[in-house]
Amino acid sequence: MSRSSAAAVPAERSVRHEDGHETAESTTADTLPPPAGERWLVEPAQTVRLFTTDEPLRLARGGRIGPVDVRFETYGTLSPERDNAIFICHALTGDAHAAGYHPGDTKPGWWSTMIGPGRPIDTDRFFVVCPNILGGCQGTTGPASVDPATGSTYGLSFPILDMSDFVVVHRALCRHLELPQLRAVVGGSLGGMQVLEWMLRHPDDMEAAVIIAASSRLTAQNIAFSAVAREAIMRDSGFHHGHYLDDGVSPETGLAIARMMAHITYLSEEALAAKFGRDPQHDDLDPGFGADFAVESYLRHQGEVFLDRFDALSYLYLSRVMDYFDPFARPGATEAVSRRAPATLVCSFSSDWRFSPDHSRRIVRRLIAAGAPVTYREIPSDSGHDSFLLEVPRYLDTVRAFLDAPPAPRAGESSAPARNTPGSNGGRS
Questions:
Q1: Which pTM does this prediction carry?
Q2: Is residue 30 part of a domain?
Q3: Are 350 and 424 in contact (CB under 8 A)?
Q4: 279 and which of 138, 259, 294, 338 could share a cystine (Cβ 3.0–4.6 Å)?
Q5: Which domain holds residue 283?
Q6: Which residue out of 189, 226, 360, 424 is catalytically annotated?
Q7: Is residue 178 classed exposed, middle or buried when 0-12, 13-18 and 19+ CB atoms within 10 A define those classes?
């Protein structure tokens, strides 16, 4: 019997999260990745210079940066009409490698649950683009890049960024790729915040927007977690006032602690209890100040592996952008979307306490008030904020169905009410 016609059989697989950790997740044959020997190989990342010293990127909060290089990956084939492109915006610690395997890889890209052949974002149908974000550290210009004016890394002289700066760079990449309009823009967490910013400012750029586990305004608790993480980095003796790369040192302890604390917020209490409970790390508990419990050892490991793939300055800059994001507070924030809004899907997860369903419902209410056609789903899941990266069938089926459906009438074209799916509260809270 072929895989496509086989009955759905429960299975377990190891899922790589965006922040690098792995968990065993229940899934079915319908959502399993290709079996061994059928790895989906993807092309290496590309890098393009979108802004130069002579024509720099002008930033929302003042200042300019040039040159600006952007690393990105693409999957699938662009249609002759150039109308099947989906743009992926990644979260805080993501990168351009969203899906598939590069030759020699042992793990797929960070959103291979969502993107690939036969996946909800089906690369047999769609042309998918995923760049590393401005200010990142995986090939796109950021604070760890060399400032051509000084020959040293930017460090803390790198300008403070705004969510709208990400959108300016994303749109420049679309122009470079000659994508006149996107079939959809999709993102989770910080990625979803970029999608929201983009659709509010330039709704004509996309037919559809998918905003997952995101926020339109961080709470005091959200800001507090990020503040402690930044303090851990900046108070590390290896930080050297942001010049650590030039001085050959690194704030490794601070960055590891920042990741350990943030990682706790990405998992629900139920997920931690199921995975670790109060299990000892070794056969017998011997009270001391080491990693006595399994959960302590796990967090230490997550902090250590994070050091190999992320930069402390990028953590500072990107987390600060999230703190200041409050798009609906802008005068006239919904004017453009009220005239011509893309069809929009907003998803939240029941156990997400980092960006709880209340955050998503706030987005939905504001968009509905502007007349935008919105679908909202709160997905039951015990996995917390990280659910958006996992094999959660109801969630993946929702995204698939939304992208498969014809685009809803845009605001200004029809007086049709917001779309709702079973289990949705239609934005009411």
A1: 0.87
A2: no
A3: no
A4: 294
A5: 219-324
A6: 189
A7: exposed
